[in-house]
Amino acid sequence: MDAAAYASRETYPQVAGSTALDLVNTVSWRLSPERRIEHFVEYADVLRWAVQLGLLDEKSSAELLRIAETDAAAAADELSRVLTLREAFYDAAYDGASSEPVAREHAAAAAAGRLERDRDGWTWAFPVDLALPRRRIALAAVDLLLRDDLDRLGQCSDAECGWVFLDTSPRHNRRWCVASDCGNRNRVREHYARVRDAASGASADTSVTP
Fold it and tell me: Which intervals of the chain form a coiled coil (predicted)?
């Protein structure tokens, strides 16, 4: 991984309006090589995120954590595959890269699972193995890519943040991942830049040419 720093989290932001986009936001300062922080440091972080996002229940997570502790090498490999899928999805959705890696993961997930009927309709059922979070991520990623409103995909206007979202604002003019965070910080920066420029212009206007 090319992240500049690594830091696990107890909870993860859910500001994107989509599970797949919230996955992208498990990197902080994505657009800054110097500040970039990877929050999926170990396989347990993937499990914690998946439980929070509703992709796993606590029972399955506990079983997968037990398996991961028994086979650390396999867990590390699975973490790497989740990160690869995350970046392939980001590249396809935001940089126009090929969707083939995401489609391939989706096909593998579908082949590994089966559709089961529950009270609310049909749902995917998978074996409880280390690949379970990645399979559910692959389904969520393709579900998003097949939406008919992908023109609403947005990315924070902060030059370094890089967090992404689905813009569901009434006027489709959302600029910030979090208005009270990146929004406020940039508004303050822009305000002081305007004040500085105005002061500089006033100084130039009143200067006396000898």
Answer: none
Interior angle at CA 134, CA 96 and CA 161, nearest 5: 50
What are the two backbone dihedrals, phi and then psi, of residue 149, each rounded to the nearest 5 degrees?
Answer: -125, 40
Strand partners, 38: 6, 27
Q: Which of 115, 48, 40 is nearest to 78 (CA)?
A: 40
Alpha helix (H) residue ranges in 113-159: 132-145
Rg of the chain over Cα atoms, rounded to whole angstroms, equals 21
Q: What is the pLDDT of residues 38-66, one digit of tens each?
A: 999 999 999 999 999 999 999 999 999 99
Q: How far apart are CA 145 and CA 148, in angstroms?
A: 8
Q: 122: helix, coil or strand? A: strand
Neighbouring-strand partners of residue 153: 166
